[in-house]
Amino acid sequence: MSSSMKSVDAHLADILATVRTLAPLELELERALGTTLAEEVSSPVPLPPFDNSAMDGYAVRAADVAAAPVSLPVIDDIAAGSGELRAIGQGHAVRIMTGAPLPAGADAVVPVEWTDGGTVTVRIDRPVREGNAVRRAGEDVQAGEVVLKPGTTIGAAQLGIIAGTGRRRVWVRPRPRVVVLSTGAELVEPGTQLGPGQIWDSNSFTLTAAVREAGGDGFRAGTVTDDPAAFLDQLDAQLVRADAVITSGGVSMGAYEPVKEALGPLGTVRFEKVAMQPGMPQGFGVVGDDQVPIFTLPGNPVSSYVSFQLFVRPALRKMRGLPAGPPATRPAHLLAPLHSPEGKRSFLRGVLADDGTVTPVHGQGSHQLAALALANCLIMVPEQVTEVPSGASVQVIRI
Ligand SMILES: Nc1nc2c(c(=O)[nH]1)N[C@H]1C(S)=C(S)[C@@H](COP(=O)(O)OP(=O)(O)OC[C@H]3O[C@@H](n4cnc5c(N)ncnc54)[C@H](O)[C@@H]3O)O[C@H]1N2
Ligand code: MOO
């Protein structure tokens, strides 16, 4: 590897050593999806809170229907939500609905399908065992029992059980707010006409979406031209709402590199060459009074996306309070030969099939975004390897 280049692992290690886990805050449940639980959640009451029926039918004493078919008087009707219940005596039945509390004295429920459905008296066709179709108090959760531990990612089911324990608000580490800025004088908004030398800005859409996929809230702050002062103004305006900033473009060796020119003099952002392909020109550091982490990714669309997966995604995990490290890899069986530059770790775009084979897509240039859009994994080729034969075992990262 060229000695002037930094390794992928060293760059990620620097980033993870710098970014901080976000402080917990208390959020309404409606806003807690995708956040990380920062407290232990336990239930103040048993769940279910009371013995209740699992079926629509009749609450009885099992012993009273042992000789079924039998007819029993129906002494009450209990809907879900009923509060005042009459205890049932020997030889009685009570019509009961799913979720309704089991009356005292009853020890089983006969499903309505096994009866004539009567409301004054009911004929019960089959005997039931004690406990039939009865859900016991505390069967799901005991009073005081912990249902979720800190560090849990809150998905739909987790949100459900938090609400199910009666909570309206919860302490979480929030989704990181990430501002995405594209730079480049050639960029115009999709949906407008292209002039000579212009292209539509795609990176800000890719990166904002990638932030969301990684559990953050991405804000597209639009594009800035190649003017470093305009870039700094825009950055300054965005910092108030940012836990991190991502820029794309303006970091290589050209005559107009606004990101490098604007941030370089601050001394808090380092611009380096990382031994990888794509994504060699990288910048990372902190900006503003709050030392907001900033990732200055290369402008080539595939390069910025691959850089996101390798460096920003793990950083967002750390900010979210989750275990963070290099992206997970899995082995795959390569179906075509590959070339890779000496001294750089390559991340080639491939299609991983269910049978564990991987086929590189056509178009491995860092500008070939359409080829990236067909891929579902990155095929990793180590720094010292330049040729990989078809049939070899390779490591891939799912994307
Ligand atoms: N003399 C050298 N030239 C380049 C080097 C180098 O080491 N020496 N590195 C190359 C590599 S590798 C990359 S990657 C790029 C990185 O360049 P920048 O980060 O400065 O990005 P730009 O020059 O602004 O743009 C590069 C390329 O990507 C297109 N682009 C930029 N932003 C967007 C966007 N938001 N949406 C879509 N496409 C975008 C841009 O038009 C350029 O084609 O530098 C190489 N050059
Ligand atoms: O290393 Mo640049 O990121 O081609 O393509």
From TrEMBL:
GO terms for cellular component: cytosol. Its cofactor is Mg(2+). Its EC number is 2.10.1.1. It holds the Pfam family MoCF_biosynth. The keyword Cell membrane does not apply. Gene3D superfamilies: MoaB/Mog-like domain (3.40.980.10), MoeA, C-terminal, domain IV (2.40.340.10), Molybdopterin biosynthesis moea protein, domain 2 (3.90.105.10), Molybdopterin biosynthesis moea protein, domain 3 (2.170.190.11). The keyword Heme does not apply. It catalyses: adenylyl-molybdopterin + molybdate = Mo-molybdopterin + AMP + H(+). Residues 179-318 form the MoaB/Mog domain. Pathway: Cofactor biosynthesis; molybdopterin biosynthesis. One of its GO terms (molecular function) is metal ion binding. GO terms for biological process: Mo-molybdopterin cofactor biosynthetic process. It is an enzyme of class 2 (transferase). Keywords: Magnesium, Metal-binding, Molybdenum, Molybdenum cofactor biosynthesis, Transferase. Belongs to the MoeA family. NCBIfam families: Glp_gephyrin, molyb_syn. Catalyzes the insertion of molybdate into adenylated molybdopterin with the concomitant release of AMP. This is Molybdopterin molybdenumtransferase.
